[in-house]
Amino acid sequence: MYKKLFLATVMSVATTLCAHQVVTQNVGTNKFEVKFWAHGDFSPYKSNQLIDAKAYDESLKEIKTGINYHFGENKTPEVLTAAKPAIIASAFDAGYWVESDKGGDFIDGGKNSVKGVVFSTSRSVKLGKTYFSWNQNLVSPIGLKLEVIALSNPFKLKIGDYLPVLVLKNGEPIEGIGFEVGKEKSKSVTNKFGIAQIEIKEKGLNVIAAIDSEQELNDPNANTLLLQSSISFELK
Q1: With contact defined as beta carbons under 8 Å apart, do 125 and 105 qualify?
Q2: What number of other Cβ atoms are within 10 A of residue 235's Cβ?
Q3: Exposure string (b/e) for 89-124, b if CB count within 10 Å is 16 or more?
Q4: What is the residue range of 107's domain?
Q5: What is the tally of structural domains in the chain?
Q6: DSSP assignment, residue 200?
Q7: pLDDT of the chain along its 236 residues, tens only?
Q8: Residue 3: exposure state from Cβ atoms within 10 A (0-12, 13-18, ≥19)
């Protein structure tokens, strides 16, 4: 019974939070901004929602990376790297979604901030990997809890092509993981090897996100962790 309720809650929350991911954009020499991409547009966010950002070169060696959060300045946090990256990976706290007798909504502080009957609370965390260049070294994982890996060069794709991707959870291939591609839910799911074929439907910014969830036992303000991990790249 609990499993059915848990799955129903996850499906409801995932539908509500779809098409919200983090991507990184270049704004200068070794200077980048992590942006919150929502339904095709960029939305402002609080600086403390950016949990982390790490950069990697073409050999997947980690590059020294720092973040200027601009706390109190009403500016988007800047990511500064010591060298030109091939990938920047970021982690983002998208907050708490609470289902209560008053309906569903994003609530700062989770269930502790709700008066009335609480049915479920989900904490949403976004992991994003943005590709800036490509070589075969980049098919190796960088160690994200949930990680999507492009298995071929995404910059050579054309509309209608398929990109093979590998999804790992805790370093192991995971079967049955679904995706959001851009603003739409994809029909693709990972096979027993953790691999799926994702159709490319548009030029410009492409965002491919794997969706997973699990029971949350470490956060007293949430009973579900909704974890989404994406790759993004610009297709010219």
Answers
A1: no
A2: 17
A3: bbbbebbbbbbbeeeeeebeebbeebeeebebbbbb
A4: 2-235
A5: 1
A6: -
A7: 444 444 444 444 444 445 689 999 999 999 999 999 887 788 999 999 999 999 999 999 999 999 999 999 989 999 999 999 999 999 999 999 999 888 888 888 888 888 889 999 999 999 999 999 999 999 999 999 999 999 999 999 999 999 999 999 999 999 999 999 998 899 999 999 999 999 999 999 999 999 999 998 888 889 999 999 999 999 99
A8: exposed
